[in-house]
Amino acid sequence: MTKITALLLAGSRPGSDPLAQAAGVPVKPLAPVAGDPMINYPARALLAHPTIGQLIILTQTPDLYAANPATAWLASHPQVRFETSDSGIASTLLGLLDRPDLPFPLLVTTADHVLLDTAMLDQFVAEGQGADIAVAMVERATLLARYPSSRRTWLKFRDGWWSGANLFWFGSAKARAVIALWQEVEQDRKKGWKIIASFGPLVLLGALLRLLGLRSGIARIGRRFGLNARLVAMHKAEACIDADKVEDVTLIEEILRGRPGADGSATGSI
Length: 270
Prior knowledge:
The chain is of the alpha/beta class. The chain is built from 12 helices and 10 strands.
């Protein structure tokens, strides 16, 4: 198959981040998880996957990663390059879609996706094939069956309660229309009803009356924009556990200790 370009979002939002403050680091992706900067985990997972051709790290401060001994390996890796991002995710992506050096498909994830692994990437890449845009999500029952105390932001639909898994697939330039809409609601990403409303009154009404499933809602959004839009319902509960809060890091470190081959040591590079 065509090699995929992976985009790893490692930018900073306006204002201070509590995880970065607690760790005494200038930006959140450098905050340690089990002794290693969190950005190293998804970076290693992406670079180890056979479908990934290149990894582009998007950040406002690329020099911070080159200067940090624990992340300097990224700056010298032959498959990695840093690019300066805008303040918003959607505006950054819109600036990249038309570049000839970034052929489709594009896979986007975040630096706090510490638990990203081969199985998640296998599923997402397989189910994203052929879509113009795909989004990974986890249904609440999947998460709570394994981690009943984990707290997420949920959107309620007829087919369940769903939380984002920080994995996005852009298979063609048709995705531009949806990303432009994303840009409009980016500041309200935690306010589920505003995001749903932005996709039109039928989608909003269906969600409020619990008549619309997430899969059919995403497909309807795709038809509105003349593209193939797809939900990837992730099998692994860990797909929606990102390092967003102190309690998330505690849970993630517990999960990492339980993974095969885990010895509690930081590794620095692949």
